[in-house]
């Protein structure tokens, strides 16, 4: 190529000056923050009076891609990239480290995982019973995998933080503003729309593409429990296949969460008791715990598609939802991909595998009005 020549990007989307983001949970807030560093005029619409009152309000905020058994692949790449973003965000470093209690894997498996994570830039420590007793004397288990980089993030606080940052850079937030399909269709004629409205996406489509999956969690007070990291463990219970105990400071711990199909049976008061019973088995000190509160929430989970769903519903209308159990973890990388798609029509992050069949620019998929 001659010096000074440049590669002209092909298939650039029609340039837009205005972006409308529908929904302000953790995903909408992250999209607003990432886009606020661009020159677009940005409007965010939320039917509630404040950010993060939907699924995000229920999240425990545990993000643990390094501890995950999945070692490589596009999903892993995206999750680790999202975690790296959190590394650079001081307010996301409050509850650092995740300890996963498990059976001791074979030496070969441990070494393979340790090396793979080291190559990706992360540390995994294996703690035997003695080490566990030294560091967490109140936990009863014979083996644990500790990841210092995994952590818990307060999704609601973070959404407020991103909204604050975006506001200072000129993003306009419209609270108590429920957006109807007609408005989306009108904007899409000339502007860009990003649908981050979680389960609300179904109202815009002829058939539901996201299903609610209920979950509940418990806030406990246990002043004599001295655990400073997230503790994660697996169970055989189908409604609580894996649980997290998250320290929040001053003797307060969050415990959960259940996975409940269908969600409309919630709240089931028995389930918080089951949560607590499971936790007491790995941490007998919790017999002294007082339940401060319990809460429930519905996660947006894609129907017959991978999680999350990212792609064009039609030209100028992007969807970013269906993050199911990983919305807090995946918020930064989702926002980075959406920003790239708006600016350039593509992203260097792997994202196409997250685009289900019904999301494609070729056909009009909106509900007929
Ligand atoms: C019990 C529980 C525990 C969880 N724990 C974790 C965890 O540890 N780690 C993790 O990563 N994830 C966790 N999650 C999942 C996480 O909460 C979700 O993946 C995430 O919050 C989804 O964010 P969202 O922004 O897509 O959806 P929401 O937070 O639901 O935001 C969507 C927003 O769109 C608004 N909206 C909808 N329709 C319209 C409309 N027409 N006009 C205007 N506004 C509209 C809604 O009011 C809402 O505020 C948990 C979830 C639950 C329920």
Describe the structure.
- The chain has helices spanning 26-35, 55-58, 74-87, 107-120, 129-135, 155-168, 181-187, 270-282, 327-344, and strands at 18-22, 41-45, 62-63, 95-101, 125-128, 143-152, 172-174, 192-195, 210-221, 230-234, 242-249, 252-256, 290-302, 309-314, 317-321.
- The chain is an alpha/beta fold.
- The protein has two domains: 18-57 and 156-209 and 303-354, FAD/NAD(P)-binding domain (3-Layer(bba) Sandwich), CATH 3.50.50; 88-151 and 212-299, D-Amino Acid Oxidase, subunit A, domain 2 (D-Amino Acid Oxidase, Chain A, domain 2).
- Strands 3, 4, 5, 6, 9, 10, 11, 12 and 13 form a nine-stranded mixed sheet that branches. A six-stranded mixed sheet has the order 7-2-1-8-15-14, with helices on one face.
- A hairpin with a 7-residue loop joins strand 10 and strand 11 (242-249).
- It is globular and about 65 Å long.
- The protein starts with 17 loop residues before the first strand and ends in a 25-residue tail after the last helix.
- Mean pLDDT is 91; it is low at 1-12.
- Flavin-adenine dinucleotide (FAD) is lined by residues 22-28, 45-48, 53-56, 58-63, 178-179, 196-198, 200, 215, 217, 256-257, 297, 299-300, 321, 323-329.
């Amino acid at each position: 190529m001659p010096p000074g020549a440049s590669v002209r990007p092909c298939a650039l989307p029609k340039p837009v000056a205005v972006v409308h983001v529908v929904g302000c949970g953790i995903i909408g807030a992250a999209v607003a923050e990432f886009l606020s560093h661009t020159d677009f005029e940005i409007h965010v619409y939320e039917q509630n009076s404040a950010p993060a009152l939907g699924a995000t309000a229920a999240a425990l905020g545990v993000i643990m891609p390094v501890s995950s058994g999945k070692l490589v692949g596009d999903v892993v790449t995206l999750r680790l990239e999202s975690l790296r973003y959190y590394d650079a965000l001081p307010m996301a470093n409050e509850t650092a480290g995740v300890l996963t209690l498990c059976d001791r894997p074979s030496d070969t498996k441990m070494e393979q995982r340790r090396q793979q994570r080291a190559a990706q830039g992360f540390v995994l420590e294996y703690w035997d019973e003695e080490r566990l007793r030294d560091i967490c004397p109140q936990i009863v288990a014979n083996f644990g995998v500790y990841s210092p980089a995994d952590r818990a993030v307060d999704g609601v606080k973070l959404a407020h933080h991103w909204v604050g940052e975006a506001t200072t850079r000129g993003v306009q937030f419209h609270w108590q503003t429920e957006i109807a399909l007609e408005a989306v269709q009108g904007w899409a004629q000339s502007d860009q729309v990003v649908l981050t409205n979680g389960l609300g996406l179904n109202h815009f489509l002829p058939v539901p593409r996201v299903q609610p999956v209920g979950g509940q969690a418990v806030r406990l007070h246990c002043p004599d429990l001295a655990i400073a990291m997230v503790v994660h463990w697996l169970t055989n219970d189908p409604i609580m296949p894996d649980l997290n105990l998250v320290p929040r400071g001053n003797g307060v711990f969050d415990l959960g969460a259940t996975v409940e199909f269908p969600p409309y049976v919630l709240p089931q008061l028995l389930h918080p008791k089951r949560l607590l019973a499971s936790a007491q088995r790995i941490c007998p000190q919790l017999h002294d715990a007082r339940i401060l509160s319990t809460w429930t929430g519905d996660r947006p989970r894609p129907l017959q598609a991978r999680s999350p769903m990212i792609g064009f519903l039609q030209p100028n209308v992007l969807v970013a939802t269906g993050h199911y159990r990983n919305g807090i973890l995946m918020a930064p990388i989702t926002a980075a991909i959406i920003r790239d798609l708006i600016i350039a029509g593509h992203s260097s992050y792997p994202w196409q595998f997250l685009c289900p069949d019904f999301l494609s620019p070729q056909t009009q998929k909106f509900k007929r009005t």
